[in-house]
Design a protein that fits this description.
The chain contains 13 helices and no strands. By secondary structure, the chain is mainly alpha-helical. The protein folds into four domains: 88 residues, Helix Hairpins, CATH 1.10.287.1080; 31 residues, no CATH class; 67 residues, MazG-like (Helix Hairpins, Orthogonal Bundle), CATH 1.10.287; 54 residues. It starts with 5 loop residues before the first helix and ends in an 8-residue tail after the last helix.
Length: 276
Amino acid sequence: MKPVPFEALVELVEKLRGPDGCPWDKEQTYETLAPMTIEEAYELLEAIQTHNIEQMKAELGDLLFQVVFYAKIAKERGEFTIEDVIAHVHEKMRRRHPHVFGEATARTSEDVLRRWEQIKRQEKAQRGMTESSILDGVSTRLPALLEATQLTERAARVGFDWGDAASAFEKLEEEVAELKHALATTPEARERLKEEIGDLLFMVVNLARLLGLDAETALKGANRKFKERFRYIERELRRHGRSPEESTLEEMDRLWQEAKQKETPSAGGDDAALTG
């Protein structure tokens, strides 16, 4: 594919938003673009998780297009330009990496993250912004698993963390026990059960982080695996002129095991059958 300079993309968006441009593109605003940006980000995540390099390239292009599109709207409103966006992130990355562009030193990733938080707090103080908590920068609009990951990451940067994954696993087992107890003693107390489920999920996120894994990505993988196996069940039943509604749990579980056997080792795992 022939290389295209960045300026050509800027000019393309200028044309789309221009007098002789596209009616749909000219109608878009920050607000109408926002849901699409989230969708594009998740499509990129899917491409990364499935190691689809061609799709990843395409999704990164879509996200880049959105950045240029936002900047074009901002330019029309006299707020900022794409050059301002580039200058801002360039200056910020240099400022927040003094161990690369300055005289500071950082031996580990943990050192980098601690200094990153210190610099962020200094920047906010210089702008007259007071932060009551290190957690204030974590958006409550994030998906719950991602929010939990960011909350625990930030707390860990200042030393509030489990010593290791083994300690977190012990706490996870404790949360499972508390949920079992709640089910056995007060199964009708929905709020109590919801709280225990939440605590259990939060600890799973902690454990994943301590193991160097991303809980959101892990769950996406599990979702994808479930869909592939269940679709196998549906195909096999359809091949015999039947539907899941006309089948038994035992028959579907047998087909589930068949689906597992057909998977590559990395995709199959050692998870249990549906019935145990």
